Amino acid sequence: xxxxxxxxxxxxxxxxxxxxxxxxxxxxxxxxxxxxxxxxxxxxxxxxxxxxxxxxxxxxxxxxxxxxxxxxxxxxxxxxxxxxxxxxxxxxxxxxxxxxxxxxxxxxxxxxxxxxxxxxxxxxxxxxxxxxxxxxxxxxxxxxxxxxxxxxxxxxxxxxxxxxxxxxxxxxxxxxxxxxxxxxxxxxxxxxxxxxxxxxxxxxxxxxxxxxxxxxxxxxxxxxxxxxxxxxxxxxxxxxxxxxxxxxxxxxxxxxxxxxxxxxxxxxxxxxxxxxxxxxxxxxxxxxxxxxxxxxxxxxxxxxxxxxxxxxxxxxxxxxxxxxxxxxxxxxxxxxxxxxxxxxxxxxxxxxxxxxxxxxxxxxxxxxxxxxxxxxxxxxxxxxxxxxxxxxxxxxxxxxxxxxxxxxxxxxxxxxxxxxxxxxxxxxxxxxxxxxxxxxxxxxxxxxxxxxxxxxxxxxxxxxxxxxxxxxxxxxxxxxxxxxxxxxxxxxxxxxxxxxxxxxxxxxxxxx
Length: 512
Fold this sequence. Notes:
alpha+beta; Transferase(Phosphotransferase), domain 1
């Protein structure tokens, strides 16, 4: 068809691609004097209803204008080589599709930039009532400025109407299996905005790791989208910030209501991007030679996990809170005379603060137990104290069992409590470990008081299992609120509010 003129205006120059939805050509716009992209979809006989639906849906897509969306300019029907065909004209983007760029994990900077730009496009579309339904790397073009531009907006719906399906499940469902939302896999016809957000989560996962969250073919792949839990990003790539890992997990939630909106995703991605840009622009004391940016691990976003002023302040505040609370607990619940409650409380607080101030945080390997040296030392110290107390009480068998099994049990419990604090309060691992250790000291104190009250061993053990996570959560909550204001702000950068125009977020990204 090269050289053919479509609708008396668009002369076909070169074919750019073809697929289930027809062909995309570079064409010369004879009226405007520049090149455009034109998508041509051939119809079968008796497709008048689909043609009418196509015109209606294409009109909706043409009303969507955004810097990160390939604009639709014209649409209609024409006769080509004796066959009825539908056509759509769009901006011609001189750049490769994102699928050609993903030959492996991408840098965090590129990932955050492209993901935020796609979120902007989705936010604009969803505000206009348009659902894309086929977010995937081949539907995203990277222009000559390096910006991501989403194409085929509204076209997925048009493909449904013209019976060209990438994958058909129960009913007429359009989508690409590797990026298909659970509701698409179920065959739901009325797809809403959350379906696009699930596909965005799959796309970010592929940008970070080089592969989609689930692999396989056919029904096996669809079953994973419906029921399988994706592997945590931190186990596949260690420099992924915790906040980004959490966002991807929420985007991949099985239920649409559990996913963030495009505006919320944009806000969180813009905040991460700004924090990363600020970290990269921070001056260094020692000049270093700039190396080419590697393809796989990029420099991690270190602000929330650093062992700086904020972490030291949190350790000191946690020690003060824990020491004061332990002193009060001993004075109120035990017959211990003064000044012993205060002395022991001060010692406990100083021990907690000193251990975490002296302990340099290190990231554990995936197969290692994620507990800090300070937490490990505290658990072993508690085990030793319990063994000595039981030995003094002439309970040598219990002392022996505690000495042999107490350490591993306490370390396992500490890990579980730390994970609970991190998940419930959304605290960094370092702060969650500190809260877990403080909770252990509180629990020992309260169990000591229970021993003075002649509680049974079973009651004391049960109380300890309940008190530890509760006191750790309370400590994590209080110490976070007591952290100096400059630290609380250090891990948060100015973000684009969902209510603000999406173009403002794009300006921030373009300038960085």
